[in-house]
Amino acid sequence: MDPLRVAVIGAGYWGPNLVRNFQASTECDLRSVCDLDEARARRAVGRYSTVKVTTAPEDVFGDPEIEAVAIATPAATHRRLAGAALEAGKHVMVEKPLASSVAEGEAIVQLAAERGLTLMSDHTYCYTPSVQRIRDLVATGTLGDIQYFDSVRINLGLVQRDIDVFWDLAPHDLSILDFILPDQWAPVGVAAHGADPIGAGHACVGYLTLPLKRGAIAHIHVNWLSPTKIRTTIIAGSRRTLVWDDLNPTQRLSIFDRGVDLHVPADTEAKREILVSYRSGEMVAPALPEAEALQSVVTEFATAVRARRAPLTDGQSGLRVLKMLDAAGRSLEDGGRVVPL
Amino acid sequence: MDPLRVAVIGAGYWGPNLVRNFQASTECDLRSVCDLDEARARRAVGRYSTVKVTTAPEDVFGDPEIEAVAIATPAATHRRLAGAALEAGKHVMVEKPLASSVAEGEAIVQLAAERGLTLMSDHTYCYTPSVQRIRDLVATGTLGDIQYFDSVRINLGLVQRDIDVFWDLAPHDLSILDFILPDQWAPVGVAAHGADPIGAGHACVGYLTLPLKRGAIAHIHVNWLSPTKIRTTIIAGSRRTLVWDDLNPTQRLSIFDRGVDLHVPADTEAKREILVSYRSGEMVAPALPEAEALQSVVTEFATAVRARRAPLTDGQSGLRVLKMLDAAGRSLEDGGRVVPL
Amino acid sequence: MDPLRVAVIGAGYWGPNLVRNFQASTECDLRSVCDLDEARARRAVGRYSTVKVTTAPEDVFGDPEIEAVAIATPAATHRRLAGAALEAGKHVMVEKPLASSVAEGEAIVQLAAERGLTLMSDHTYCYTPSVQRIRDLVATGTLGDIQYFDSVRINLGLVQRDIDVFWDLAPHDLSILDFILPDQWAPVGVAAHGADPIGAGHACVGYLTLPLKRGAIAHIHVNWLSPTKIRTTIIAGSRRTLVWDDLNPTQRLSIFDRGVDLHVPADTEAKREILVSYRSGEMVAPALPEAEALQSVVTEFATAVRARRAPLTDGQSGLRVLKMLDAAGRSLEDGGRVVPL
Amino acid sequence: MDPLRVAVIGAGYWGPNLVRNFQASTECDLRSVCDLDEARARRAVGRYSTVKVTTAPEDVFGDPEIEAVAIATPAATHRRLAGAALEAGKHVMVEKPLASSVAEGEAIVQLAAERGLTLMSDHTYCYTPSVQRIRDLVATGTLGDIQYFDSVRINLGLVQRDIDVFWDLAPHDLSILDFILPDQWAPVGVAAHGADPIGAGHACVGYLTLPLKRGAIAHIHVNWLSPTKIRTTIIAGSRRTLVWDDLNPTQRLSIFDRGVDLHVPADTEAKREILVSYRSGEMVAPALPEAEALQSVVTEFATAVRARRAPLTDGQSGLRVLKMLDAAGRSLEDGGRVVPL
Prior knowledge:
Order of helices and strands of chain A: EHEHEHEHEHEHEHEEEEEEHEHHE
Strand content of chain A: 25-35%
Structural class of chain A: alpha/beta
CATH topology of the largest domain in chain A: Dihydrodipicolinate Reductase, domain 2
CATH class of the largest domain in chain A: Alpha Beta
Number of strands of chain A: 15
Oligomer: homotetramer
Radius of gyration of chain A: 22 Å
């Protein structure tokens, strides 16, 4: 297929990764990189590059050669930049979170729909071999009925000035949750508890609890103040339970045949206890490819545009994540009570 | 000092550990072991033992030779058995939780006070070299101002019929929290979220959040349905942060000189950002003795009785734990909102 | 079956473990414990025990009630004590190593044979669920052709005065090697390299290399001077390779479907390279019981005596270990060259 | 300083890393990349690069603009290519090992000396923050007297056709050993044991033992057939012992205050035993920068050329490594006996 001619807007923390992966992709042709700080844009392409650099988004939007734009700027600017790109007829990939409010997110999604353009949420984790495998394990029933999802994403992180730790880190876990769980275990509410022990002006330590359909539960711990880095998610099911340790490259997934089987008959307590049984079987760590997720992201973007289909993580998925973040904020103001979705 | 003449009531899960440690202690003289199931009591002392065995608590209470009683029976029986023991003039050590309700707990504490007898809560973890050291590190200001306490206590656990996972496992963490935190960071409320994805009739997966004084926070994850066993607690401070991994015998405590220093001036945003600084220093793992906590427990019990002083973990500490469990129950019924203490 | 009436001689480091396990075994009846130091013997049985204590081995040998003796004294005394026990018609279990020389070991084995009495080498590790499983995996061909055996057994150990680190620690690995490898991969020689960097008078750090039949190799690292404790053995095969980490109670065995398949044709180099292929499949960690090996040891001893059969680890296995230790000593004196077995 | 104008010859496994790091270095100016396979050279620079690509080394040697050459081709070609580069007046950095024989290595070293040109051995590991720190800890006496050096470098590696596992992997450990140990603990001999259980035609599993001066010892385990990747080195000293785990990015170095202190008086055994004492103090994990070693390598190369000084890892260090590999080969042919250096 004819390579997708793309530009990257924003060369801060994430932009350079997009630049590197667009350059490495045979499905894409990187035309220019845009950042308000020209030196930063230059650093992103390097001293030996033929890629154009600009400080004016208009140069990108006005360039008829450019078909698609990847936006890696602060969330507060997404509405304006994604909007302008779509107005200019460009396909758009947006960094997470999709926008800084549900209303802005809806506006972007609606505009893309009206123009018949591709809108993709860059939920990078959903393209890791681990999450792809997890999604399969859930979809094929290998895990059985989902019991809980417990994710810990903590390290000594950059304390953001404009957003709290929920908006900074939780989109990763929420997008994964949204990606792997079919509707029968979708979240029905969100509760949030947080703390700001250093006086940053907003939560630096946060806990999200999401009751799921059918009595299951999801919980997410995000934290900027941890001396150790932890990226571990447990997804428990009635048949199997898996532990995903993203910091263990040689064994990211461990699938345990361990669990509790409880059959509760209508009648007496006595009988009931008899019917508790424990499985304590083997653990299997599947072999996974060591592919870079962002390479799959740019491939999915190019393929979706060319095939005129919605990408695996489209605007709607970005919108669902925004709605969960929004509910979390309202729960924080209500003492941590569950806010329905 | 003259060895304390003790009896153990209850030879189920925990009783045998008490029996073994009383036998190993030169400060104690184990006189008898009582259990409704005589065979179980016999197994606890072994086939070669000279220790008496009985199925009648009255034999224990009525024996003038016996000075003190350790009760390791289900919580629902503590009020009756501890009460009878105290009525009979025996000093009492009670398994956690102190009782099955705040009212029962208060009754036991009051009775012991009236009779001038020693009442000890067997908060075993508080006697581990790790927790003793942690308490020192907090008390001496080595950690600085406490920022958060995050504890994970999960494994494939025995699903209890009569109590939920909060009552089964959280007393460990709550008693540790109560033990290490001075009043200036005491909990001011409790929020609880739980799930019963297997239909056990009560929560098998639980999350407790306790806002602490001065904007700090504590969080506890207890879970019977985890395929892997985790016993890790992070205690973060403004000077140092420690990670306690109780399953790593060669390195239980890791003390990190890592953290965020944030000085927020009155004025502008701009200035403020400049004042964020990150420490990323060394980690120190102190050498700790490999003493068995329960041996220190029985020693503390005997010493406190002989010295006519309150034990390190007295009835009041057991009562504070009960009050937090009680508040957690009320939060569960209120959608997870924080219930003040 | 009628419990085996046993006595334990030697209440030093290992003796108390034997005492505890004989007491816990329904197949055995512990009659007495003997040690030159009476207080030490008493400590081994505890203050509440009905078990007899003596300082005179003769009391044990002369007691017609006693059928069997477990000897846990220094290796240099095994010849004399095991000999006297056998002369007195007792069945004997001997601590590793069987004796302090091949000649002494042969004398013990011969005497037991003449008297028709059971002689067992207490190769405890061979009775762990891990090693039992490993032996099965080798025997059933699950691992395929054995490629190498690499064992690391290091920690901050007690520096022995009379024996070097090879005699102190290597018997564990050599007895395991002897136990799991069928004759087709038996050791054909031994090379040893050691160092005494602290001036103990003999090697404190040691490396053994054992060429095995069919081009395979075994290597053992034993070390008293390591700050960290490692007990890891890799057993590589053409079909599967396993890693046994004895310090990881929740995952002692990991079986990898990973390896190199190399088919070397008669002809050209070029072709040959094409025929190298790599397997990088899943890892399986089987569920293993958490049984105490020493309990299986005493059961095997009692069962073998009653069944009048050779125990799983008999005198011959102890003798084979002695011969490997003897060859190691000769290699040390020859600059580490391989000494044939 | 004026950037060093360099070319890279060889774009196979290691070359692309050199290309990336020369491009990232402000001290260097990458002029061209040479490989017999033009496509491979192109891949190394990428589709958006301004760097020249050639298949003819002569183009590099003949280009007066190019001051220095980095050679990342198979060892067998080093003598010829490094020679030609030096003849052409270029400064040279050579991939490890320096050459495929001691004679060839000596020829390269001599030629560089004659021409007064800089010759650097790319012993990349010596430029990691870990090894730099280790060298300091040894040099400053923090570890005390060196007792042993034990390195394990194993994984499922590419089975080389032309060289055995010693020549492929051991140069890393030997160059580190050479770099961190001052002359008072220099190796005095080399013993090698190996196995070829897959029929590769040379050792795929190898063990090196190097007696060091003053009774210390070094041991290196290299292995292509391990299912798990291990990169761990223990360096034990009389004062401190460190463990370097290169696969643990958050704690590469652990420095233990643990060890055995043994004071051997002239006289009796009895006294001697009394004088054994054990230290079991804390462990400290220093904070280390996360710098990429190869970036420091190219910086050192450029700096050494401009300063007309020998680089930290010069030709002599590469030669010393060659001599140890050569001695290892002779030991293999002599049944693993120690071959003096």
